[in-house]
Amino acid sequence: MRENIPASSNDQEDQEELFEHYRIVSDPGQGAMRLDKFLFNRMESISRNKIQNAAKAGNILVNDQPQKPNYKVRPNDVISIVLPQPVQDFELIAENIPIEIVYEDADVLVVNKVAGMVVHPGHGNYTGTLLNALAYYFKDQPEIIPALVHRIDKDTSGLLLVGKNELAQTILGKQFFDHAIHREYTALVWGDFEETEGTIEGNIGRNPDNRLQMFVFADDSQGKPAITHYQVKERFGYVTLLSCRLETGRTHQIRAHMKYIGHPLFNDERYGGDKILKGTTFTKYKQFVENCRQLLPRQALHARSLGFLHPTTHRMMNFQSDLPADMQQAIDKWRQYAKHMGEGDA
User: Fold this and answer.
1) CA dihedral in degrees (132, 176, 184, 115; nearest 10)?
2) Of 153, 155, 268, 274, which is the active-site residue?
3) Is 153 a catalytic residue?
């Protein structure tokens, strides 16, 4: 019996689908066999080296306990294994695309992604992606095959973590799977909040009526569990600046959760935030909002903070990213507008 959670589309927020989760139950008549040999025999497309790395990373559990490759498989053992995403079936073209490297060592790379860049090649986007840029960056080091440990949407800016070797990718993938990675986003959303902080819980899955959207289901029978914690940073009357911390990493999680509670991200076209949802009917106000949209022609979301346990040194690593100019300018404009509202000028 095997459970496989495959990777999905390009336009994605942080997500756990960038690696595979297998669940195998040994037969009732299973004879004693080394764990690595058993898995190699059962998982024909997986290399022995990948299985060994998964074991080193503590990513192979037998009956919920980590086991070494020499463990002897017994009848009815329940074996779980988390592996990095399999190699894609397309040629990765190296392209000389500028990228901002925040940190790099022998195992990991932290990139500050600009808005508008797709992170991973796929249908309709085989060039111009972050992975194409990384292929060029490492063109003189063919032994390095960089892999994304998570993703953020094309039009979301901010920090991304990249594994430079298979063992690092496997260890970091398990941290994401265990929700042990710290991820905070800055978001500008429509409307005001009565409370200063809160938690949104709601299963997220593909919208049955619109395949381009993710949807928060009213019950737990559909979608996958998703949890977003938020805190109000500034109030601008008709919009609010939030810090959002992800506990899970579902596709479009913040965007879908904010729409679900009636506060879509400012200028998020896919989730209705490109319309004027709060404010006045005055022409002057409509023009002000349009000016903000021109400054920030995308959803107001930035991956600001990233924290993880280093895969080999085991030190806690923390990184921060300043808001990009487009989002900062829009926020400054709303801040100034709110100030005038408070003075009774608008």
Assistant:
1) 20
2) 153
3) yes
* Cα 43 from Cα 185, distance rounded (Å): 38
CA angle (136, 89, 51) in 5-degree steps:
90
Rounded CA separation 50/61 (Å): 15
CATH number at residue 61: 3.10.290.10
CA torsion, points 215, 221, 225, 226, in degrees to nearest 10?
Answer: 30
Helix 48-56 to helix 35-42 angle (10° resolution) is: 130
Nearest to 81 by CA among 17, 16, 22, 6: 22
Place of tokens 């992170």: 119
CATH number at residue 256: 3.30.2350.10
Model pTM? 0.81
Q: The tokens 């079936």 sit on which residue?
A: 89
> What is the C-alpha separation between 160 and 188, in angstroms, rounded?
20
pLDDT in tens, 234-259: 999 999 999 999 999 899 999 999 99
Question: Domain range for residue 288?
Answer: 179-346
- Contact status, residue 177 vs residue 82, Cβ threshold 8 Å: yes
Q: How far apart are CA 93 and CA 136, in angstroms?
A: 8
For 83-127, write each residue's pLDDT tens digit.
766 555 567 789 999 999 999 999 999 999 999 999 988 766 778
